[in-house]
Amino acid sequence: MASLTSPTFTTNTRCLQRPQNSQSPSQQPRLSQRPELNRRHFISQTASLSSLPLLSPLILNPQQANAAAEDSLSEWERVYLPIDPGVVLLDIAFVPDDTNHGFLLGTRQTIMETKDAGNTWVQRSIPSAEDEDFNYRFNSISFKGKEGWIVGKPAILLYTADSGETWERIPLSAQLPGDMVYIKATGEKSAEMVTDEGAIYITSNRGYNWRAAVQESVSATLNRTVSSGISGASYYTGTFNTVNRSPNGNYVAVSSRGNFYLTWEPGQAFWQPHNRAIARRIQNMGWRGDGGLWLLVRGGGLYLSKGTGISEEFEEIPVQSRGFGILDVGYRSKEEAWAAGGSGILLRTTNGGKTWTRDKAADNIAANLYSVK
Predict the structure, then answer these.
(1) What is the secondary structure of 168-213 as a DSSP string?
(2) Which residue windows does the record flag with biased composition (Polar residues) (predicted)?
(3) How far apart are the first and last CA of the chain?
(4) What is the helix (H) or strand (E) element at residue 223, kind and residue range?
(5) How far apart are CA 102 and CA 356, in angstroms?
């Protein structure tokens, strides 16, 4: 049984400051002034959608529509980014205390910064990582007030207390099970960190000490309970395909093969596995605005759980996705949500998910839209 102990870290932090001889984001030329890039205005920071296109990385962002205009669709504009076409965008977040200030993460050690709501983006370098032979994949970013956290692969943890002006690198134990795939800023000097093997760690002192919230990895739990009746759980050695956190701290994760899912609530010692009640394998799962679950299956199909909270009962919701699979859903409120998927599919609901309307804004974009934030 693989037990998760609580690692303790003490270190001299390294500050990741902007080079003095480089221009700040506000001094950089506006992207829209570079004709070869043909930039569009990044209008809002309240939600965002990232994708991996065929030609160049892009993000789509919704306009801040007033109450009279919220009933209309086509609220998204395409934003071109000055990065290599091979970069995969993985996460985006804005500083709550300055909603014009945000960061965009990706593969190939990509961290981009905006200070004008996304109208211009500049690369941020990480001096402490440049001397190493690793090419970091930055997986997740989260802010609470001016404090922010970034995790990546190979194991790297960055922390800021000044809205991202400087970043400190916090060393991590080499004994952490799995790769860090998610982090959530939860309060002053506090965060939750999740690995793809199901380890959940909690810190309340800027990441210098971490406490294990679960007693063992998911593999150990499933292999120990081979009589649990969970299809595909016996001799499980896989990792999470996706993991999502609710505002009240509950987690839902999909197994790497999509044949079952797991949930965890604060205070539980182990992840709880659940059989899927749908024939097709699970693509992704997450939380609705009312606390219930949404579920996407491979090959297309959207399901909503019955009632709120954790449930194994789901009902299919008809959607017009043109035959392409839906890859992610993001709720802005209990009633409004957006869904995104293959070949630029964008769908919107204003009644909690009962019905969905297709937005044609991205129909002509040769890209799969992977994430809604």
Answers:
(1) EEPP--TT--S-EEEEEEEETTEEEEEETTS-EEEESSTTSB-EES
(2) 1-15
(3) 36
(4) helix 218-224
(5) 29
